[in-house]
Amino acid sequence: MQLLQQILFILLSIAAIWIFVRKVKFITRNIKLGRDEEFEPHPGRWKNVLLMAFGQKRMFDKPLVALLHFAVYAGFIIINIEILEIILDGIFGTHRLFAPYLGNFYTFVIDFFEVLAFLVLTACIIFLVRRNMVRVRRLNMTELNGWPRSDANYILIFEIVLMSLFLIMNSADRGLQLRAYEHYHDVGSFWISSMVAPIFHNSSAQTLIAIERSAWWLHIAGVFVFLNYLPYSKHLHIILAFPNTYYARLQAQGKMTNMPEIQKEVLYAMQPETVPADVAPEEHKKFGAKDVFDLSWKNLMDAYTCTECGRCTEACPANQTGKILSPRKIMMDTRDRMEEIGNNIDKNKNFADDGKTLLHDYISTEELWACTSCQACVQACPVLIHPLHIINQLKRYLALEESNQPSEWNGMYSNIENNFAPWKFSPDERDKWTEEVQG
């Protein structure tokens, strides 16, 4: 019977890892659909990883929420260190493999894990109430209708169940230890599960074994299910937050990336003498971005990293004043379009034109022109996502490729083209106002 359990466990582990790796390859391929973007090594990158990904620095503008989130994050990650022991127990048919080697320190470690598990469980319950009863505005906006809202609830419920199974498993295990039953050796009383253990005081040894084994199997199976749920969920940021903060742009936040082709044309207009006499006309290069292929791989990683927390949308002045722009929706739409293209490629071996694009079919011009490029969304993101970079590239395509911009801008464009300034004054008369001052 024990050998059969070991075989089943190994098969379950292989299946879970295979499915996860397959989805990771799918996401990696989708991110690589984007254009190249160079990132030079810099010590500041590791600083971002430590402060933003590990330390969650930007979360602490809301201290209580930040502490609860940190408890869930740290607790869930640290507790899963115990998965190593569970996996080895499952493969070799042992029970608490590390206990004999660690002695009292093993009891301390499990005590620590149990305290973290209780914090995770408590925080998840609070978050469920906050999402569904308190109904915080940014967590109940229209772009979250359907799967996104359900996804957030599912993951919280999932974590509550996993932490409960962990504590129940230890409680039943402790009951068997006290009875010195077979291989359940006494490793000491655990802080949290010892409070639950009296519930099983009158249970038979067979009942306790059934409870402990069921909780053990459900816990490890739940972890494997959670592992494979992550790539389909906004909680993929648990993994991608680290590379995304590492590759965050280090230049000044307000600095925008210029287009060399446009800069050259402006130079030639302002200084005609710099135009080379024998230069051949260049092939037209598409300006801006119309679909995910035109964005950089970092833009696409940003989209997969999005936590859907809505802090960017909450900070957006356009959204606050009733415009339909939501930076969070921009990131969600980019990710959804990537997934659609990825499925298209899997089905057809290569991308078959589906008549859709990120611009227009997912993101409207009304959303884009509502953006004032104020950087509030960039400043608010806890994992250094840059929605404005995507927005600006889509706007560039609208203006430079489709000549699709607010009509009020046409006069400004004409003045810049003819007068080299936004105002309707001849360059020769630009300093005429100084005569009046001197007079």
Overall description:
- The N and C termini lie far apart (105 Å).
- It is built from 21 helices and no strands.
- Helix 1 crosses helix 4 and helix 6 (104-134) runs antiparallel to helix 7.
- It has 439 residues and is mainly α.
- The chain is elongated and about 100 Å long.
> Structural class of the secondary elements?
mainly alpha
Radius of gyration: 29 Å
Order of helices and strands: HHHHHHHHHHHHHHHHHHHHH
Number of helices: 21
Termini distance?
105 Å
Largest β sheet strand count, sense and barrel closure: none
Which stretches of 5+ consecutive residues score pLDDT under 50?
Answer: none
- What is the averaged pLDDT score? 91
How many β-strand stretches?
0
- The proportion of strand residues reads under 5%
Please estimate the helix content. Answer: 55-70%
Overall geometric form: elongated
Write the layout of secondary structure elements.
Layout: H1 2-31, H2 43-54, H3 63-79, H4 83-92, H5 99-102, H6 104-134, H7 147-178, H8 193-196, H9 205-229, H10 237-246, H11 260-270, H12 297-305, H13 311-315, H14 317-320, H15 327-348, H16 358-362, H17 365-369, H18 376-380, H19 387-400, H20 408-419, H21 433-438
Helix pairs in contact: 1-4, 1-9, 1-15, 2-10, 3-6, 6-7, 7-9, 10-12, 12-15, 15-19
